């Protein structure tokens, strides 16, 4: 299959919805057969550029034959099992609406950068980005306004929010591989590389901008192979903790339940947060994330540790599947679902939601909110069938029963 990559002149920077509601979700796509599609190859981008012979000369102006999957699944995708785009300096895998047809308001990239390399300078046309460091050491440098770039040190557990239109880089400053999850607030994120753009601008125009003669301004060749760049000879930035844009997992208070803990990223922790959030869940072996739904957000979960069975229920649809480490699960807004840890290992999940303040309705809450005899009438049963069900409030994570 040939992948058609849009010319940058065709990219549109549509108004970005700060939160996503059910009206934006293409429900009809759940009940149709998906055509064969493929994964986009850049970090949240339609700009594909390669640095090795494995994928040659991918740019916004070319098309290249790349690995494909036979069909698009409804809710489940093996992100780490997908064939990566390989570059000198690292790899990238991304799940978008090309991989899960019904995906809306979210997508996710798994970026690995080798020591001495950088995903360098680029910006997103239609999406905010929220990154989570899985492993390694590095920094993210970003600029949106003011006089200086903000440089944030990253390590495992660091979370960084990058607003739409912010130019930034992701750099490995350590000796081991830097592995980042980067979520986007659009199902088909678009980006531009600085190296792809300035070379197209007239040299006299650039010289005039800086009050120089044409001869004094360097001739900039358009670089179409700069997805990852070698920065081993360049000093690291002066990293700091910038409250509007970053937080660390260790600083997020844990909510403790019988079956594990949940940590919730809120705008109080990252004031600039908009249209996206992150939950970190760690369940005990056999724990159950009880049946629930999210009234104001879609959910995209990356499974770090453990195996889980997920069931999703919606009108005319019931889907059950098992996820392993490196898989992602997509849950549309308001779809009833549960997550059951079927392994003897702890279950660790990094969730991204399409709302900075996602809400939930748990089955345990419903049982506590309404009289039990009223609930019983919904099942056409004896009014006392729920008499022995305790009012526990919000269970969220239930421990395995002995």
Tell me briefly what this model is.
By secondary structure, the chain is mainly beta. It contains 4 helices and 28 strands.
Question: What does it look like?
Answer:
The chain has helices spanning 194-197, 203-209, 363-369, 372-377, and strands at 2-3, 64-65, 76-78, 85-87, 90-95, 107-113, 117-124, 129-135, 138-143, 150-154, 158-162, 167-172, 178-184, 191-193, 228-230, 246-248, 254-257, 260-264, 277-283, 288-293, 299-305, 308-314, 317-323, 327-331, 336-341, 347-353, 361-362, 397-398. It is mostly beta strands. The chain folds into 2 domains: 2-211 and 223-230, Jelly Rolls (Sandwich), CATH 2.60.120.10; 247-398, Jelly Rolls (Sandwich). A 7-stranded antiparallel β-sheet has the order 3-24-21-26-19-18-17, with no helix packed on it. The protein has a 7-stranded antiparallel β-sheet with strand order 4-5-6-13-8-11-16, with no helix packed on it. Strand 4 and strand 5 (90-95) form a beta hairpin.
